[in-house]
Amino acid sequence: MAQTPYLALYRKWRPQVFSDVIGQEHITSVLKSEIKSGSVSHAYLFCGSRGTGKTTCAKILAKAVSCENSSDGDPCGKCPSCLAAENSFDITEMDAASNNGVDSIRELRERMYYPPSELKRRVYIIDEAHMLSQGAFNALLKTLEEPPSHVMFILATTELNKIPATILSRCKRFDFYRISPESIAKLLKKIAEAEKINLTDGALLLIARLAAGAMRDALSMLELFGRDKELIDEEGAAKILGVVGRGPVMKLLSAIAKKNTQGALEVVGEAYDASKDMGILCSETGESLRDLLLVKYTSKPEHFIEASNDVIHQLKEMAESFTRERLLYCIELIEETQNRLTRSSFSRRATFETAVIKLCDPLLSTLPEAIIDRLSAVEEKLQGDFTVQQKEKEFPKPNVVEKTTVAVEAPWEETKSEEPALEEKPAQKKAEKQETARTSMVAYAEFLEEVKKKDIVAFSMLVDGHAQLNESNVKLFVNSAAMFMLANAKSRDIIQTCLARVLGYTVEFEMTKMKEEKKEDLPDLNL
Length: 527
Fold this sequence. Notes:
Helix content is 50%, strand content 10%. With 527 residues, the protein is α/β, with parallel strands linked by helices. It contains 24 helices and eleven strands.
């Protein structure tokens, strides 16, 4: 007895009626209504992402328009027309990716004038229609506008933007949505039970999430699992599918939330030892950060996050360790790292590990989002019970010679002479007065905000510095790079304007190279 050839799951379980198509009820209900009323159009355009049911609906529609015993708009599958539709020459499926020239359309036009031999209508399904050349589209225009009464065109495409407007105006357009993970997981469970594939609900939800709304992709991944009695959980499914999985990513995010650099690097090392691709780990980390952001900004994150209730609960607890500014910084850094991983020849592991270190310590990054996060942390401290304890600075006293009396003895007489003491110079007195009156500038953060509005470069140069002021002078302590970058007249004007806006009066300023000992005298405002 000949063995039945194996069929891929997505072919074996392809829907045969509109009622079996999931996630596209807004389309199937309209098509069924048109079949029942007999108001079927001569040209349709199905557009949407891959694996959402465009070709499936096209085949069902091609069969339904010729069905003799249609049931609620669905083909019966038993009449001679339905049985003949499977291999009939009256239904032609053309791949526009390989038949995209003018000659292919010209041949189609010559054949379509012949009446159907077995079915009521001759149907042409043009898949990947956006791949047609401009000449082919032009050759199809007139035919698509006024085809013979027995001809129907169904165009399917994943890139609607490449379809000319002249074609769009001649077709009835339907937009296919991505299928929700819940709907995919529900159908996968049914198919897995029928195919004797033992998977937990968590594993099925992982497949549904990775499918990104494409049912065909989900069925292709389901085929990777053997038909044995051993139950496969989510972690086992992640290993088979070659992804990191939710567990290690949540562990990585937990370490980042606690600013535990060593723990985060250990997670990356474990993933690398397990032959996980750093690009996939980076992508999944970005997805989980997006989930954290939604938890932070929405009251019902379960409507937007594709995860179980336990995972959402973990995300809610973890979100308390992140500020909104830090989450935005993390997402920006992950996006930048993903771009580096795709185009850089540098070690992928080292690239991602560098990003993880920056995620754990925003002080190491110069991104504007990282600076905003640091400023936000400072503002939170200043708004609370935090008080700046300013240490008293001891300035060295100037060497002043006090008045002294010098006795000079001469052999011929004994006299006492009194020399005048060296008086302090006026300039020296003025400098000492300014130094002793100089205090730390508490409004330095507000000054940085004003500078940021006018010049982001000047802001980045001043953000690591500090300032001291007296009544008429401000001394800015910056690094050597900032002294060079801010030496121009434009930058000095911006700094002076921002100082006047914050302090309420015009002051002069000077920039001094920052020394290590100065930092020790300042209050620690960093997290």
